[in-house]
UniProtKB/TrEMBL annotation:
It comes from Sphingorhabdus wooponensis. Pfam families: Aldedh. GO terms for molecular function: methylmalonate-semialdehyde dehydrogenase (acylating, NAD) activity. Residues 18-477 form the Aldehyde dehydrogenase domain. This is methylmalonate-semialdehyde dehydrogenase (CoA acylating).
């Protein structure tokens, strides 16, 4: 059976006694196994990082940028191979797999400008003969712990800024689809990155805990579910590390009575069911304002959902593929039952969906509920599958309150032709990322990504300038070059600029 190994110091890592199975979501079988590492494996990676990092930090930023340029070229040249590898383990369709890689690559493009964005600030003459300036320096060794649902984009969100700023970076990808991060690390080396600067260690909680506890790792970026994000944040911070930990989501799409419903239905079906709903920026809750809007929307939504094509991930015509594992399929179907038991009106039931010739694949048909209410557990929690819940609101204020009061605050969208309503919504909603007639408002690479409330712990977002801040420390220097003349100052009084 194919085995996926650690990637330490530019090559495959040591033997292992524990493994996790990599499933084939299209067919339900086991396609490979990944080694599960421990503190000893991590120690090897940390030692390699410690040996390589000082020279990388002092490599001038233009040369570091050139590695990013070449890496970008190599990822583009290998796009098909990477997309098929990603799709085979995750189950998302090929076009969407390419999108996953491309959104990560856009962060690498941003990192090609690292000489510019790392420049410090300078104030000449802050006092008599005194200048004050600042410089950004890398943390040293950083680590990334990533979820299964974006096996290219999220490792690239982290590795690009971490490496470009002069750190050594160790990634611990999801044990459910770990092949793409290893391939990306290989391409970094091919692009000219020194060995030991981008490494991959595999594992589960044991490896995550080893990373959280290792004294040489100074910064940890995590993306995954909220309970684990919370745990990672607390344990990492308690060990004196800088931690950013992005968690789960339950994004709402508010539909105002004046919205263009054909556009809404088009956007909503893609955002709710694309990637089988396994996106932290999916739109699994739709909130029509007013019963009339709800009825008009439902009438258009039902045929659009019924027309969706669920297929194997290599089917170019399919809108979405299987979910990642049998356990995840059972969990999503369990939530559908919970919503039924709680009184949600099941309009379209995706359970029991079988794809001919792929009966053992982890497929779930698209599912639609109406009359979901805020007291239901299935509304409060993240389902992370192809399930759309309609929660009706009587007014704009009621609609605004729903995402604002929800435990998660990752993304939200409003669909309207009314600029005033949109502006009001954007400024008042208690959510980190807002789309105005944009269903999945993932900010572009030169802005930053991050949710609020239980969708994000820590205070620095991913990528853009926030990413640069996260992976660097600012050193502040105050200098004077006295010429020997007496300055008459009193050295015993705290200096002021008065
Ligand atoms: P997950 O929390 O199960 O796993 C994430 C990482 O944590 C993996 O590397 C995993 O190995 C590790 N892990 C799992 N259990 C652990 C434990 N007990 N202790 C320590 N580490 C552990 O998440 P997932 O199922 O892979 O990904 C889906 C989740 O990620 C969803 O909740 C989704 O909303 C969220 N997500 C959030 C964002 C965001 O930016 N906010 C982006 C993508 C995904």
């Amino acid at each position: 059976m194919r085995q996926i190994d650690h990637f330490i110091s530019g090559g495959a890592g040591a033997s292992a006694s524990r493994f996790a199975e990599i499933m084939d979501p299209n067919n339900g079988g086991v396609q490979a196994r990944v080694v599960l590492g421990d503190a000893n494996i991590l120690e090897r990676a940390v030692q390699a990082a410690l040996a390589a990092q000082p020279a990388w930090e002092t490599t001038n930023p233009q040369r570091r940028a050139r590695v990013m340029f070449e890496f970008k070229r190599l990822v583009e040249a290998n796009m098909d191979e990477l997309a098929h590898m990603l799709s085979a383990e995750h189950g998302k369709v090929i076009a969407d797999s390419k999108g996953d890689i491309q959104r990560g690559l856009e962060v690498i493009e941003f990192c090609c400008g690292i000489p510019h964005v790392m420049k410090g600030e300078y104030s000449q003459g802050a006092g008599p003969g005194i200048d004050v300036y600042s410089m950004r320096q890398p943390i040293g060794i950083g680590a990334g712990i990533t979820p299964f649902n974006f096996p290219a984009m999220i490792p690239l969100w982290m590795s690009g800024p971490a490496i470009a700023t002069g750190n050594a970076f160790i990634i611990k990808p999801s044990e459910r689809d770990p092949s793409v991060p290893v391939r990306l690390a290989e391409l970094f080396i091919e692009a000219g990155l020194p060995e030991g600067i981008c490494q991959v260690v595999h594992g589960d909680k044991e490896m995550v805990d080893a990373i959280l506890d290792h004294p040489a790792i100074g910064a940890i970026s995590f993306v995954g579910s909220s309970d684990i994000a919370h745990y990672v944040y607390h344990r990492g911070v308690a060990k004196g590390k800088r931690v950013q930990a992005m968690g789960g989501a339950k994004n709402h799409g508010i539909v105002m009575p004046d919205a263009d419903l054909d556009q809404v239905v088009n956007d909503l079906t893609g955002a709710a069911f694309g990637s089988a709903g396994e996106r932290c920026m999916a739109l699994p809750v739709v909130v029509p304002v007013g019963d009339d809007t709800a009825e008009r929307l439902k009438a258009k939504l039902i045929p659009a959902i019924e027309a969706l094509r669920v297929g194997v991930s290599t089917d170019a015509e399919a809108h979405y593929g299987p979910v990642v594992t049998a356990q995840h399929k059972a969990k999503v179907e369990g939530w559908i039952q919970t919503c039924v038991d709680e009184g949600g009106e099941l309009i379209i039931d995706g359970r029991g969906f079988k794809l001919q010739g792929h009966e053992e694949g982890f497929f779930i048909g698209p599912t639609l509920f109406d009359h979901v209410t805020t007291d239901m557990e299935s509304y409060k929690e993240e389902i992370f599958g192809p399930v759309l819940q309609m929660v009706r609101a009587a007014s704009f204020e009621e609609a605004l309150a729903l995402p604002s009061k929800h435990q998660y605050g990752n993304g939200v969208a409003i669909f309207t032709r009314n600029g005033h309503a949109a502006r009001e919504f954007a400024s008042r909603v208690n959510v980190g990322m807002v789309g105005i007639n944009v269903p999945i408002p993932v900010p572009v690479a030169y802005h930053s990504f991050g949710g609020w409330k239980r969708s994000g712990f820590g205070d620095t977002d991913q990528y853009g300038m926030e990413g640069i801040k996260f992976w660097t420390k600012v050193k502040k220097i105050t200098q004077r070059w006295p010429d020997g003349a007496p300055d008459g100052g009193n050295a015993f009084v705290i200096p002021t600029m008065g």
